[in-house]
Design goal:
The chain has eleven helices and 16 strands. The strands form two sheets. An eleven-stranded mixed β-sheet has the order 1-8-2-3-7-4-6-5-9-10-11, with helices on both faces. The protein binds threonylcarbamoyladenylate (TXA) and magnesium ion. Magnesium ion binds next to loops.
Length: 349
Amino acid sequence: MDTRIEKPDRQGRVIAKAGEIIRNGGLVAFPTETVYGLGGDGMNPAASAKIYEAKGRPSDNPLILHIADRNAVYDLAAEVPLAAQKLMDAFWPGPLTLIFPKASSVPLTTTGGLNTVAIRYPDHPIALAMIQAAGVPVAAPSANTSGRPSPTRAGHVAEDMIGRIDMILDGGEVGIGVESTIVDVTQPVPMILRPGYITREMLEQVIGPVETDEAVTHWVGSGDHPKAPGMKYRHYAPRAPLTIVEGPQSEVVETIQTLAERAFSQGKRCGIIATEETKGDYPRGIVFAVGSRRQEESVAHNLYAVLRRLDEANVDVIYSEGFSHDHLGMAIMNRLVKAAGHHVIAVGK
Ligand code: TXA
Ligand code: MG
């Protein structure tokens, strides 16, 4: 299959074409404010099957339906609880996905067999224009091959999807860089199933107490059944084994220096995920400054691109500094810890 890579034009021809492809059962990758999505007609089981195939994704892992109009939620959800309405008012359009009881119109192929449905109203002009042009809810997982870091640039999508999908809409780098926060509003106390840019504190300001699913912070084995089925897969995995070192900055740097020296003496190529503040402290190795500790957003923005660049650099081992677990740090560490297969060394405690 030929994959067209196109930048939206002023006349709207490219967007119109993308909408037509989706309406006809094809697949289009598109930018959102979080990561690039791989879109298909969410009401068409054949299109969902194509999405699972293009990603190499297990079909019990449900897809998020993307809408471009708040009212579309009432066609897709059997019930819209009050807490959900408040969250929609506060954060839609934006990086928040809500889980509702599903309406009978939503195919089980889209929801991975669940009787709930994930809905998101993204805040990105290209995504919104494309969904409108398609005229259907757009089912879209992140546009990476299953098990690779989510794409934050059109080039990342191309690395994984050339020849597998009809079109890639190139909207440049995305803003946020980690996937949307997922909140289950079907239970009395809403629960975070996946942390993201919309933090627990931000949610609680609007609806009061919110719980966090165990799978967010704890190891989930293949025999477990987390509420967001996607949380059980080893996601975002770089090719080389990754170890996180966390604790006070100077001790973290010292420990990584020691571990890296050991790797060099064994003839290994060593990648290091550092920060603007510490990159100068590592004289050897392939060092990436993922962002600045003073600006957590910059770490989220660059994290997946750095993991992809480490794969390209063909390193044998990777050491990463740890980050705070609070606020946006919860989302950053959730992704990083999973990429590390939960391999974390705590120092100085
Ligand atoms: O930011 C995002 O949400 C991006 C962009 C493209 O919108 N999309 C994204 O989709 O991250 P995906 O498929 O990579 O991750 C969706 C997650 C999976 O962990 C899946 O298990 C969970 O959402 N999910 C989907 N439907 C669900 C449901 N009904 N109940 C619980 N979890 C659900
Ligand atoms: Mg994904």
